[in-house]
Amino acid sequence: MTVIEEPRTTIRSGTIGDSPVRPDGVAKVQGTYAFSSDLHADGCLFGATLRSPHPHARIVAIDLSAAWKLNGVEAVITAEDVPGQLTYGLIAQDQPVFAVDVVRYVGEPIAAVAAIDPETARRALDAIEVTYEVLTPLLDPEAAIAGGHDPIHPDGNLIRHQHIVHGDPSATGAVVVEGTYEIGMQDQAFLGLEAAIAYPDPGADGVELHVATQWLHEDQKQIAACLGFADEKVRMVLGGVGGAFGAREDISLQVHTCLLALRLARPVRMAYSRAESFLGHVHRHPATIWMRHHADADGRLVNVEARFVFDGGAYASTSSAVLVNGITMAQGPYACPNGMVDGYAARTNHLPCGAMRGFGAVQACFAYESQMDKLAAACGVEPAEIRLRNAMKTGDTLFTGQPVLNVAPVEDCIRETMALPLPDEPVGGTPLSDGSQDAMKLPGGAGRTADAGDIVRGIGWGVSIKNLMYSENFDDYSTARCRLADGVATLKFATAEVGQGFITIAAQIARSILGVDEVELDQIDTHIGSAGSTSASRQTWMSGGAVDAACRAARERLFEAVGTAHGIEPIRLMIEGTDVIDTAGDLRIPVVEASSGLTIDETIEYHHPPTEDLDENGQGNCHTAFAFVAHRAVVDVDPELGLVKVVQIATAQDVGNALNPLSVVGQIEGGIAQGLGLAVMEEIIQIDGVIRNGNFTDYLLPTFLDMPPVLATLIEQPDPHAPLGAKGVGEPPCISSTPAVVAAIRDALRQAGIDAPLDRVPVRPADICL
Amino acid sequence: MTLSPVTSGYTRWDQSDRRLVSSDETEWFAGGTDLIPLARSGVLDLDSVVDIKSSHLERTVQRIDDRWRIGALATLSDLAEHEELTATVPAIAQAVSQSATLQIRHRATVAGNLLQRPRCSYFRDPSISCWMKGGSDCPARDGRNEHHALIDEPCVATQPSDLASVLVALDADVNIDGHDGSERTVPVAELLQRPVADRRSLHTLESGDVITSLEFTDPGTSRSTYLKAMNRAVWQFALVGVAAIVDIDDRHTVVSASLVASGVDSVPRRLTTSSETLTGRELTASSIASAADAAADGLTELSENGYKTALLRGLVQRSLEPMRGG
Fold it and tell me: Do the chains contact at A770 and B307, CB–CB below 8 Å?
C-alpha cells in the first residue's frame, strides 16, 4: 500500500495535478506497444557485433575472408570501414566505433556483420579470425591513479582528478568517525534491450535511424561525426524504449547499424541479447570512498574529509561528470562549514562505466549516510536526530561555495518520514488462517528457512541530496513546439520518453495552459531542436519548461486573436477551464471556438541559468538545482543465515509541485526497487576483467516479492526557480534508500549482538552470518 | 550454435533409432530449459538434438502399492501440483516449488532437472576451458567461489538440483534404458556422482542412455521437509538447501533419519554423521544441535564460501526443529 494524497477533485481532468492514464500505458500493459526490438522492415538485414574476449590485447590480425564466404552474409566491416571519426563519446571522444589495434575491455566491438538472418550473422562472427597478443590488463583503479602502469589509452589512465577545499580543512571536532566504503557495479537492467533499425537514403548520402535512446540529438551528433555526414543527414526517430536509467545515454549499436545500412543500401536491424547488453552499455561506477567526519559533542558537523575513487573502466563516457557529482555531494544534505575532498575517476580495463540513475550521488550517499550513523552512535543520539541537527536549509553553502538557492526542505523530509507509521505487522507477518506463517513475509522467502523466532527487526535511515539538470557550464536546454488549431494542441519535442511519463505530463501542461482537452503528440524525432537527455532528473523541469513556454506563447497568440476579434486588450484575457474569459468583462468563449480557423505555431528553446566550471580548489556554482529526500527502512534479518527481508520503506520526497502525483509515486517505488537491489543483491561481478554473471539468473534483481510496501509523502513546496514549480523526481528515490536498508540491517544485527560493519554494497549473506 | 527447431540436427525421437544419441555431440531434448541457454551462449556446441517430449516416455505420477513412480517427462509443476504426492512427501513439492520460475517449472522435466549442467559461472563462460569442460584447472577454486561447493576436488561446482537432494534422501531410484538396449535401475545417489577425470559430468549416464522414470518407496509416516536458503525471495539456485526425511515413533524417538544437503557439494550430499547422530535418539534440542554441528563434517571451505557452513548448520537445525514433540 502506498499513501498518497487525497484525489484532487477540483482539478480539471487531464491537467496539471491530475494523474491521467498514460498514452502509452494501455498498449504496454496489453503487450501491443512496439518497443524498438519490435521494429522490422521488409527486406531488412540483420546485424551482429564481434566483441573482444580479452580485457586488454593487441590486435595482430583480423581475417574476414571466411565470414565473407558464407552464404547470406552481405557485409563484414571493421574500423577500416568507418568513413568519419573513428571514435565517439559523450564528453571525450575516446571510444572507438570498432577497436583499432588494441582492445581495452571484454566486449569491445571489433567488427560487425550483416546477413539475411540472425543465425547467419552469428555464424559469420564465428568465422572471423582475430589474432590477439594478450596484454596485461590494468584492473586496479588505485594503480591507474598511482601512475606506475603504462597508459592503456592515449588519453592516459586517469580520466579526471578533482580537488575541493572549503573553509578550514584542518578543522577538527570533539567527535571523529571514519570509514571506507565500497559500492559494487550495478546494471541499469532495463527490460527493453538495445535495438535499432537504420534506413539508408537513396544514394546512401543520409540515413534514418529508429532507436531506443535517451538523447536523440546527441546520438545524431556522434553518429554523424563517425559517418562523416553533416548532422542533418542523420535523422533520428525514437523507437519504443523499455527503460533506460542512464544506460542509453552512450552510443551502443547506433553507428554500427547505420554503417551496415549505408554500406548495403538496405535497411539493417540490430538487437542485443541480454548477455550482449551487459557488455554493450555502461554501468554504475564501482567506487571506494574514504570519509572522516568531525563534529562537535552534539553531533553538529565541523568538517568532512573524503577521498573518492571511481573505476571508470576502459573509456571515459561520463566518468568526469559522475566524479563531480559524487564529490560535490560529499557532505550530503547537511550543513558543514569545512571540507576537503579528493576525487579520482580512473581508467581501467573493466567495462566502461557511465550514467546510471543517481549518477555519482548514489556512491557518495552510501558513504556519508553510513558515516552519519557512526556519528549518531558516537554522540549517543538517534539516527534521525543527528540528521535533523545538521539538516541543510535554503541558503546554506555547499563545499563548492555554491549556495543552495532552491527550496531545501530537508528537515521536512525527515520529520514527515518520521510521521509515517511503522509496520503494524509483527515480525514474520500476521499468521495465516491455519496459524502458520507466510514464508514470503520472512527473510529467505519461498525457501521457508525462517520463522519469527529467528528474526530480528531493524530500522535505518537515509537522507540525500541530488543535483538536478546538467552541471559545469553545460549549455543545457530543451526545445518544444506547440501548434494550436481548432481547439487541438499538437506538441512536438525530441524528449525521449523512456517510460518516465513525460508524454503524459506534456499533455497535462498543454491542457492547463491552453484550456484544451485534446492534445496530440507529434513523433519524437530530430525534426525539432534538441531536448537534451532524459537523465539527471531534468525533463520535467527542462522539457516541461519548454512545453510550458511554447504553450504560453501560443496562448498569447490566441489572446491576441480573440482580442482583435472582440476589441479587447489581450492582457485582459485568461483561460478558465476550457474557456477564454475577459477578466474585466463578460466575454467567455470556449477555446475550441476561439481557436477555430487559427493556426498558431510557437517553438521555444528553454535554457536554465548558466552554471560554472569548478576551479582547481573545487569552487564554483557548478550545479543548477537540488532536490532532497528521506528514507526510513524497516528490515527483518535472519542473522544466523544472513538473509534479509525489507519490510517497509517510508519516504518523504521534496518534489516541488507534483504535476502528476501517480507518476511521482511510480518513480518513488521504482527508484526504491533499484536502491533495494543495490543494497542487498545487485552487482556485476568481474574477475580478471570478465563478467561472471551477465544474465538475469545470476545477476539478481529484486522481484515483486522482494519489494516492500512503500509509504510515500510528497513534500510539495513549489520551487520558484522551476518553470512549473516541479523538481525532478526520478533519481532521489534510489539514492538514500540503499543506505537506509543497510543501516536497518546493521541495526538488527546490533540487537542480535553482532557488530558487522557492512561497509560494502550489495550486502551479501556472507557479510552478515560470519 | 544457436539452437532452434529449424536446426538441421533436430530430430523427434523414434525409439528404434537409438543410435542417434550415441555420440557426445547429440543431446536429448525435453524441457530444454537448461540446454537451450547453454547452446545459445556457446557453452554447448550441439550437432543435433533428439526431441523426446512427444516420445513414448512417461509423464505420469502414480503410486503403485507402496512405490511411487514418476515418469521422466513429468514436469516440475506436475510434481508440485500432485495432491497425494504433496501430502505424502511434502519435501518434493517444496523442493520443486522453490526451483526456478513457474514458467520454467511448467516446462522442465524431472529427468532433465537431475541432469542439469553446473551453475558455475566459469563453466557457463564459453571462453573458459575449465576442468569440467576438459581443461586442466578449475578457476573457481582460487577465483570467485561464493556460490561453490565446500569440497577440495578438481571441480567445485555444486549440483544445482533441489529435487535431487530430496530424491537422494528418499533413496529413490532411476530406471534407465541403456544405449545398448539394456534396462537398468540405479539409485539417484549413484546416478549423481562427483565428476572424475575420465567422466567430467555431474552424472554417470552414458551417451545414448535415457532415463525413463524414477521410483521410490512411500516414506509412510516419515516426515519430510526441504528448506532452501536464497538471498532473494524467489527464483534463485540454492545457496544451501537441506532435505530431511525423518521417521519418528510414538515415543519421539528417531527411527531413521535421512538428511541431504544441496549447494555444498557437487552431489546431493548425504549428511551421514548428522543422520546417524539422530537415529535412536529422541528428537530434542540437544540431539538436533548435535546433528547440526555434525552437518559440515568433512567439508572444506574455499576462500569465499565459508558462510555456507553456517547456513548448512542453521538449515539442519531448522529442518528438524518443527518435527519435535509430535
Answer: yes
